[in-house]
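Anyone else keep sequences and structure tokens together like this?

Example one:
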Amino acid sequence: MDINIVGCTAEYRFAVMAMENGLRVSMPLLDSSPYDAIVETPNGLRKIQIKSTAQKIVNNGVALTIKRTGDPYSLADVDYFAIWIDAFKGFYIIPNNGTQRRFKFTINGKKYSNNFNNFGVLV
């Protein structure tokens, strides 16, 4: 599947899943925005950068590098990453700490297990 289709599908999938979890979602009209969605929660607005990968599982997991023009996403631009891992059929929703560049998600991994399809972390 074309990489643009994979990314676009992930953005719409995130919006639908967030709404199914009782959250309101807005998406910018321009693709040059540093975030892909804004989620309205009872505790305020959250700027979400949505990433996706169709990589196959290698060594029990999937690794992903994220960056914007060579630099990590700033805390001013992005509050959370929603990372769709096609091999796991789900999103990892992870707070941005301003320095992340690389993630590794493993089958039954404990590091991000509480972030898998957990839209509650946005609240």
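And example two:
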Amino acid sequence: MPIFDYHCNDCEATYEIFHLVREVKEDIICPSCNSQHYKKLFSAPNVSVGHSAQNYTAPFCDADGCCGGGRCNIN
């Protein structure tokens, strides 16, 4: 069940339309001004990588370039 993003050519609003099976042109109506003059936008899909962001901790690096992972930028 795809969701598509659209941009209204009349009032400049951006909106989403949820389509049950396929895109039906008669269903694409701007919720702000009821116009059917639109441009379809292409959105990047939301992809999960396997771990949540709340479980990831970025390494801490201090002003001297020493990071919490045990590496330091010492020449």
